[in-house]
Amino acid sequence: MRMCAMALASSKSKWAAMTNAEIIKAVEEKQLAFYALEQALAPDYERAIEIRREVVKAKWCPSAADTHPLETVPFKNYEWDRVVGQCCENIVGYVPIPLGVAGPLLIDGKKIGLPMATTEGALIASTNRGANAINSSGGCTTAVLKEGMTRAPVVEVDSLEEAAALVKFCEENLSILQEAFESTTRFGKLKSIKCAVAGRKVFLRFVAFTGDAMGMNMITKGCDKALEVLKQHVPSMRVLALSGNYCTDKKPSAINWIEGRGKTVVAEALIKADVVEKTLKCSVDSIVSLNKDKNLVGSAMAGSVGGFNAHAANVVAAVYIATGQDPAQVVESATCITSMDKVGSDLLISVTMPSIEVGAVGGGTGLPAQRALLEVMGCAGANKEEPGANSRQLARVVAGAVLCGELSLMSGLAAGHLLSAHMKLNRKPPQ
Ligand code: ADP
Prior knowledge:
The chain is of the alpha+beta class. The protein has 3 domains: 1-82, no CATH class; 99-146 and 262-426, 3-hydroxy-3-methylglutaryl-coenzyme A Reductase, Chain A, domain 2 (Alpha-Beta Complex); 153-241, Alpha-Beta Plaits, CATH 3.30.70. Helix content is 44%, strand content 20%. It contains 16 helices and 11 strands. Strands 3, 4, 5, 6, 7, 8, 9, 10 and 11 form a 9-stranded mixed sheet that branches. The termini are far apart. The site of adenosine-5'-diphosphate has 18 residues, from helix 8. Residues 186-187, 210-218, 359, 361-363, 382-383, 387 line the site of adenosine-5'-diphosphate.
């Protein structure tokens, strides 16, 4: 062990002592791998990245321009030690994305600012208008109805009979698999396994509580161990893949819409009739009627799964990028049914979102700016007293932000203002 560590240390100092030109030559001559620059020059990651940019500029996309286009991509003064080995490989810089805030929104009695990273003009202004209307009516309330990240390995056995026996074993011996799963994690708790058989293949959809983490790494480790133990009881079982798409991660699917994935959250608000008229510039009747025609009938006509909303994905994507969530999970996190009813003379609006996948620890949530924005929202990092409380709070805020977006866009459409608002906020007059 000691020899190995010493060898690594001396080879590292070898690279550190070389000039950039010498290292670039070594990469070009394949004495040093393109991907291994950070490892060779650690802890000076900025230098490693600077050298990779030179290699890319010279070999991948030479440019005749005085200033190479890659020069426009920033790379300095970033906390690369939080990125290397965790968030990104073959690093050449970072992409700055504009960040705005909407709100603060009164959610469950607390005012919370909504950070949104976006390049879509009018989105934040619209969300902000929705927040104003909700705040003027006393705020919104949320409920977390269900919680559980999922991972579904696919396994194969030698007969249909064995497939049925495997399902029965999982149903009758959950505690054995829970013990195995939970031996891999301090926070993960296996709640259930939903089995589906297709011929001799069995899909095992593990559902687990993952504390304040979004939980994909945690649940994958737990599944791996549980399968090892399952194999002791069903020796003919072969694991085809740790993910068999019955999870379903980052792809549209009915199972997430019906069963939920991550947090299942509802947010609602009762908007006073005069706020609908004065702030949102439409009538309760017109917005309720449009919600039926567009979000229910229109989406049904389109054969939608989980798309019974106006633009939940816009808000989810902007909040996810701002707070270091996995943007690919917008696919299922943004499934949402927006409901509107007239109650007395007021408007009752709700968003029901079965699959909000968020974490307050892990992944991109540890990057400085993303973490700071989670702090601004009051849900950064691990909740020591009640693990899971911070990620649940973040899921509530996501649903609240979507509620604002739905209210504002739907009222804009009902009033016929959508195009004029976009033209005003999205299109700079020609210079
Ligand atoms: P994910 O499972 O979302 O991909 P990671 O496994 O990469 O996330 O990060 C979660 C890490 O944070 C784990 O190592 C876990 O032990 C640690 N952790 C610390 N506190 C908590 C908490 N309250 N809830 C969940 N994980 C926590």
